[in-house]
C-alpha cells in the first residue's frame, strides 16, 4: 500500500516513535522529542518554514537539544529523484546550523544519483522496506557481514529489494552505510568535534575527590586568614573579585525559596530578593559558591540554584558527577569559612568569660527554654551572629558541630527565620 502526504508522515512518526521507545538511537525515551510540522524561522523567506518531522535528542540535565534531526518523509509510487533531494537541501540551507542533521526517508528507494548528492550535502538517506505490519526489522547478525556496503546501496536504490536477511532499515549517512539507527547517531556525533566532546563529557564518570572535615576546615580557615579585615571579619567580595566571579543583586524573586543562582561557565552569581532575603542568607550563599570554586567543583558543574536549605536544579557536566559529595563539601567549607573554628572558639570563650557563663556539664553553653539560658543565648549567640554576619540557625549548627554548645529540643525559637 502506498501512503500519501499526512498519512505517510503519521506512519513515519509511528516508526520513529518505536525506534525511540526501543532505545534504538542510544538515548532514553526521556532524552528524545519527536514533533510533527515543527516551525523554523527562514531569513530568506522572512517567515517560518515547516518540516514533516523533527527529532531532537537531549543530554542529561540539558534544556537545549543536543542534536536536531529534520526528517523529510516521501512515499512516492516511484523512486525519489535527485531534484527532490536538491529541493530538501535548499530548504535546509535556509536554517542550517551545526546541530541540524537532515534525513530523507522513503519506503520506495532513491535514484542512484541521490546517493552522491545527499552525501555531499550532508543529508542522510533512510529507506524502510515496507512490510504489511509496518514493523521495524533490524539486522540481528552478530558476525561481520561481507559486502554490507553494496547490500545497503542495493536496498537504497532498488524498488523491488526484499532481502529480509538484513532487516528492513537501510541508512546512508554523510560518512558511511549502516543498518542501525544508533550507528547513524554515533556517526553524526563523532563527525562533529564539538558534539563529540559534549557527548563524551556527559557520559564521563566524575569522581569528586574525598576531603575530610578536617581538610575542609583547614582550607577554609586559611582562606579566612588571607581575606579577613583588620576587624577580623571576612571580606567575601574580595575573594569573589580575585576568583573573577561577578555578582549581581536583584530585587527579582526567582521563587520563594531560591536565594542565589550561579553559572559556573560564565562565573556569574545572581542574588535574588534583595528586599526579601536577609544579608546573612546572601552571605552564606556566596560562601557556598566560593566553596565550589575553591574546591574545583566548577570543572564538573554548569549551573546551580541555592536555597536556604540545599541546592537545587544542579546541572553537572557529567551524568555521573557526585552531586551529593560536592554539595556537602561546599556547604561544610562555607560554614568553616564564615565561622572559622579557631577564631570563633576564641571569641566564644571570651564572651563566656565576660558574662560569667559557667560550664554546667552538658557543654560550655547549654540552651533550653529556661529564662536564664535564654538570657545566655542572647548574650553569647546573638553577638556572634552579628559579628560573623550569619543566621542564628547557621551559628547553632556550627557551635553544635564544634561541641561548643548544646541546644535542647525545648528551646522553642524558630531560628531559621533570623
UniProtKB/TrEMBL annotation:
Highest taxon of source: Bacteria
Gene Ontology MF annotations: DNA binding; endonuclease activity
Pfam family, one: Peptidase_M78
Transmembrane domains' residue ranges: none
Keywords (A to Z) from UniProt: Coiled coil, Endonuclease, Hydrolase, Nuclease
Any one Gene Ontology BP term: DNA restriction-modification system
Domain Restriction endonuclease type IV Mrr residues, every copy: 68-127
Coiled-coil ranges (or none): 131-158
Domain IrrE N-terminal-like: 277-399
Protein name: Restriction endonuclease
